[in-house]
Structures are given as C-alpha cells and as structure tokens.
Design a protein that fits this description.
Length: about 425
C-alpha cells in the first residue's frame, strides 16, 4: 500500500468514526463527487457549531456556502488565524463542535494550530488545501486532523464529513457549548445599587475566571452600565432587540464593546428610543449571548416586567439587590413571595450599603422581611464608589471591603475557590 493510500485510509478509517464511511474510498478522491449519505437521519439532523478559519476570503466563502446548505448548523467565519496557539484553541474547542482550517495561507502555522487544537480538545478538526500532497497529508494526520478536504467543496462531501463529526461528538458537549452561565442583577427599588454591583461583578468574574464574559444592560432606556465603566458604545441593547430575527452571534459581536478589563458590554442606548421589547426578543438575545459567552451578566434595573422571560426561568443565579430601608425591604418581600419559591436556590439576596444596625433595623428584622438571610452584605462605602465614578475605574481595581466582597461573589460563580486568578486570554472576540 502506498503512503498516499495509507493516508487516505487513515482519513476514512471506520475505527476513527462511530459509523463506517460506506461507499467512500477517500475523502480526497471524492471531494468532487456526489456520495450518498450512509448514515441515519438522527445524525444528519443534529446541528453542529462550526468555526471556519480561513484568511483567504474567497475560499472561505465557498467553504461556508457548502457548509450552509442543508443542515441547520451554526457557522462562524474567522478571517485570520488566531494570534496565540494556547488560549484561543482552548476557547475554540469549548465553543465549537467542528473547527475547519484553511492550510494554504500559512501551512506551518495552520498545522501548529491543528496540533494545539487536537492535543487537548474534543472538537473535530478538519483541514482543507487546494494543493494536497502526501507530505502535507501525513503531517495533518500526525497533527490530529480528522478530514482533509479540497476545494471546490462538494456539498455531499461536506455533509458526510459533518455527519462523522456529529457522530463522534460527546453527548455532554452540546450542553457545554450552548449555555453560558446567566447571572441576573435585579433591584428591589431604583437606586439600590444594581448597576454598581453588576458592572463590578462582571469585571471580577471575567478576570477571575479568564472566561468570556458579557455584560448586558437591559435597564432600558436609561441604563448607565457603560457610563460606570467609562465606555462609549455605538450600538445598544435596543439595536439588538429591534430585529431579533436577524440576531445571531456574528451580529451581536458587532454591537458590543470591550472594556479594558476584558469584559464585553452591550450598553443601553445613549439617546431615548422607545421600544417595548417582547419577552421573545429578550429570550432570543439572551440565548444568542449564552451561545457565545461563558458568562452573561445582566443588569435588569428594578423593573419586573421581564419576569416571564428566560432571565428568570434559566438564570444560574438571580441577585436581588436591596437595602435595609423600609421601602426596599417591603418590595423585596413582595418580590420574593411572588416570584421565588421558598428556598429557591437560584435566588441570592445582596444587601447593599449595609451598616450593622443602621436606623435601628437589626439583622433579625432584615431576615424576617426577606424571609431568609441575605447571602451578601456589601458595605456602604461612599469614597470608593465616588472614586469609581470620577475615574471610571472599576471598584475591584482597588482593594477595599467592597471589592473583596464582589470578588468573592464572582469567585463563587467561577468556582475558583481560593486559588490564584487565571490569566485572561480570550481572543475569540478580540480584535
Ligand atoms: N455600596 C455602596 N456604597 C456607597 N454608595 C453606593 C453603593 N452602591 C451604590 N452606591 C451609589 O448609589 C447610587 C445608585 O447606585 P446604582 O446606580 O448602582 O443603583 P441602581 O440600582 O443601578 O440605580 P437605578 O435604579 O438608577 O438603575 C450611585 O450613586 C452609587 O454610586
Ligand atoms: Mg442602574
């Protein structure tokens, strides 16, 4: 058997797939032929998330077109190789079932990328080149690529390759990639401190976890999360909600702005457009956001009209931000009784501007009003908050009792216990 034949056999070895590649001698030999899909419908109907990395635009577009036909796969095109071969491949692997790479613009770098992806990842890595030679094939095989494709891409060939990828995708993977954590900040009353806490929590979470984190300002129309972080945004949550039929990850990426801490922000509008976002529109925005980000933090202000949305149904945690004043405690009590079952694990109460026994209100009074103890007590610290507002520097950048507590809240979510924060390195959405 010649070396090339061995390679062909490798790329089509039934042992490397869950189903035999019936009727196909070689992916390469068959790229221009129509092959009948040999697999059952259950595989072929499964949607995959696909990252297509191709610096050469025309070839990438052709590949994307072939991939788009037929199945409901999510395809994300990248027009450059990632700049680093360590963090980005891990993130790609977390977010995509299949990663397809054009070798031709820089075969050496592309091969290093394939190697890095295959070393630890579970995603199926495919490569393509218009100049396949046996040496390149051997190297791709050794690097761990599962399919070697050549343009022009026959749809049937693409379908077959994707069916194999779907078949080998671990069952646990779908859930992992499509659902970022959803962390919702709701105020019991205007001015309770939702924006201050949501912004700083998002920054702490992004930095502590090293994961992709998006802060969405849903306190429409007047939310001021961007202002708190010193961000100027061209687009807003309203832009995202205006036509949700068009909203996907690629569009969302264009609407968000990156803060220097690493957090991405979808800001509230700077002007006063009026929009009555439907529950469906909010659901779509949050679903798309969670497909692309490990953590989605939402400032919903102190309006309760979104209680019928995914924000509450699927929240990882709802942080009810309140204070020890009578109106805030009264509202909290009503909210908890109406929307959160007794002992609802996803509700965490954050008592902001807390000063023990202030105004004669004891902890017992507070616990009684809240029907349970507050998980978090954030001290009143006017100088720290003022400094943040004047300098647009996150609270957590400077050590203080507030910043320590917010970091602790974030660490509870990132699961980092007391270990050192990881270095951030998310470049998937980086420019
Ligand atoms: N722990 C704190 N210590 C001192 N001041 C605080 C604290 N938390 C918030 N503040 C201040 O209280 C005010 C209201 O806070 P913030 O804007 O975060 O509340 P909000 O619930 O988002 O209000 P809104 O209803 O306007 O959206 C701000 O001036 C903020 O700086
Ligand atoms: Mg606010």
């Amino acid at each position: 058997m010649s070396e090339t034949e061995k390679i062909y056999q490798y790329f089509n070895d039934p042992a490397r797939t869950t189903q035999p590649a019936a009727g196909s001698d070689s992916m390469i030999a068959n790229t221009n032929q129509t092959i009948e899909a040999p697999y059952s419908d259950s595989f072929s109907t499964e949607a995959l998330s696909i990252a297509l990395i191709g610096p050469e635009e025309l070839t990438r577009r052709t590949a994307a077109e072939a991939l788009r036909q037929g199945r409901g796969n999510e395809i994300r095109e990248f027009d450059a190789y990632p700049a680093d071969l360590d963090e980005v491949p891990k993130l790609l692997d977390q977010q995509y079932d299949v990663i397809i790479i054009d070798l031709d613009p820089n075969p050496e770098y592309a091969l290093e990328l394939v190697e890095s992806l295959c070393a630890n990842g579970a995603a199926t890595v495919m490569v393509f080149s218009s100049k396949p030679d046996s040496e390149l094939l051997v190297r791709c095989m050794r690097a761990g690529a599962r399919e070697f494709l050549t343009p022009p891409f026959a749809q049937a060939t693409m379908t077959e390759a994707l069916v194999r990828a779907a078949a080998r995708r671990p069952a646990s993977r779908t859930q992992k990639k499509t659902r970022g954590k959803l962390l919702v900040f709701l105020g019991a009353k205007g001015g309770a401190g939702v924006t201050t806490l949501a912004c700083n929590f998002a920054v702490a979470l992004a930095q502590d976890s090293g994961q992709s984190t998006l802060l969405i300002d849903l306190d429409l129309p007047l939310g001021d999360a961007a202002l708190n972080l010193g961000i100027i945004a061209e687009y807003s949550t309203i832009t995202a909600l205006l036509d949700t039929s068009r909203l996907d990850l690629a569009l969302l990426e264009k609407l968000i702005v990156k803060h220097s801490s690493g957090v991405w922000v979808l800001a509230a509008p700077g002007k006063f457009p009026t929009i009555n976002a439907s529950n469906e529109a909010i659901d779509k925005l949050i679903t798309v956001a969670r497909q692309g980000f490990d953590n989605v933090v939402v400032d919903v202000g102190s309006k309760f009209d979104s209680t019928g949305t995914i924000l509450y149904r699927e929240a990882t945690t709802v942080y009810l931000v309140t204070q020890a004043g009578i109106p805030e405690l009264r509202n909290s009590n009503r909210l908890i009784s109406q929307y959160f079952q007794a002992g609802d694990k996803k509700l965490e109460i954050v008592l902001n501007r807390y000063e023990p026994k202030a105004l004669g209100v004891t902890d017992e009074h507070i616990t009684k009003a809240l029907t349970r103890p507050a998980q978090w007590k954030i001290p009143n610290d006017y100088p720290a908050v003022r400094r943040m507002q004047n300098t647009a520097t996150p609270l957590i950048a400077v050590d203080s009792p507030i910043s320590r507590l917010i970091k602790k809240m974030a660490r509870t979510v990132s699961g980092g216990a007391e270990e050192e924060p990881k270095k951030k390195g998310f470049k998937l959405f980086g420019k």
